[in-house]
Write a structure and sequence with these properties.
The structure is a single chain. It contains seven helices and no strands. It is rod-shaped. With 164 residues, it is mainly alpha-helical. Helices cover 68% and strands 0% of the residues.
């Protein structure tokens, strides 16, 4: 019996199961999850950038409003508001679509993008006329309110903004 016991060999344990290479299903699931997480991070970043842009524009508008209260000469203030709107628009829309717009076409674009009709009324016409008037005594308070409403409207209306 002793000789039979000597013929027995030790038990060999199987190799440890490795994590790689995994089954193709897990690789596909990991790739889908990675893509989804990347999309969420990108969307969050874009939304954050949009909020920062509008927040900056609203802060600049507030400073212009304070400057307008101190400065009786509204010519430069109206031009600064126009520049602020143009810069903000360049962030939200493609340059090719808006860079060449001026006059009534520019005001029509602002109406469409802000879902309003006030830019082609007397208030919006200040953007075109006020910087070139010799003695400007116009009250810019409605223009400030219109610009603020427009900034809020384009920040909320993502369907109008075109991806660059």
């Amino acid at each position: 019996m002793n000789s039979e016991l000597q013929q027995l060999k030790d038990i060999h344990l199987p190799h440890a199961i490795s994590l790689w290479p995994t089954a193709p299903g897990w690789i596909i699931l990991f790739a889908i999850l990675l893509g989804f997480i990347s999309y969420l991070i990108y969307s969050w970043y874009q939304r954050n950038q949009r909020k920062k842009t509008v927040k900056f524009a609203l802060a600049k508008l507030k400073k212009l409003r304070e400057l307008s209260a101190k400065n009786p000469d509204n010519i430069n203030i109206a031009a600064e508001i126009s520049t602020l709107i143009r810069r903000t628009t360049l962030y939200y829309f493609r340059r090719e679509d808006i860079a060449g717009l001026s006059g009534r076409d520019w005001l029509d674009f602002l109406n469409r993008s802000g879902n309003t009709t006030q830019f082609t009324d007397e208030t919006g016409l200040l953007l075109i006329d006020a910087p070139y008037r010799k003695n400007n005594t116009s009250d810019l308070t409605p223009l400030f309110a219109l610009t603020q409403a427009w900034l809020v409207a384009i920040s909320k209306n993502n369907s109008l903004a075109v991806e660059k």
